[in-house]
Structure of DNA-binding IclR family transcriptional regulator:
Amino acid sequence: MPRPVQQDTYSSLQRAFALLDVFGSDTGELSIRALAQASGVPRSTTHRLVRELLDWGALEAGESGVRLGVKLFELGALVPSPAGLREAALPYIHDLSEVTGLTANLAVRDGTDIVYVEKVSRRSLRVPHSRLGGRLSLHATALGKAILAFSDDATVDAVVAAGLTRLTDGTLTDPAALRRELAAVRRQRVAYDLEESQPGLFCVAAPILSPRKDAVAAVSVTGATARSQARLFAAAVHGAALAIARALPPRALPPRASR
């Protein structure tokens, strides 16, 4: 849920973004009233901004309200993947899904979240929370833990300080337990999510590392929950991560720290 805006400190552009940010993967059409309430933007201002967003194409009128417009899809299609990461990883993501029969994902870190930048789905398994462009907390996902395990201490500290939100009964919410798990990931080069981000699903992830062992991204597979079954896919996921790392263009690697 987006954070409500403060009328005295936010510009019209920020308020317009706040309105768009109300929409989620399971949101269809929203009324002016619902948009105003969820965003914290005054209703009169919401009316004006919605008209402008409709004129520009960011929103479209529906039967019971407004929905996101095709103009946003057009712009989103123009956004390049992070430094060529998606293009380099895509063949291996497809192979991983084909070999395992599971949904394969590619994600990068953004603040204290992961953002899904590629997904190859299987018709037999619907994984709605890993939609393209979707985000989840680093600490509650195998992808996030794979990245965190090879991040600096400041990044881990920031995740802990932000609060380890509980998504399911299995989510790690104790900082000491999270740090122990990250140490295990560093040893094994594989991370697990056993119903930690969503009930009924497991995820196995491996970090995509630069030559200096920085986590550039992470790759995973997702399937029905079973701890023993999850571990069967560890080698395939780790192998895909190694192959993607070798295929990355130089611009996808993090810059060398200055001396």
About this structure: DSSP finds ten helices and eight strands in the chain.
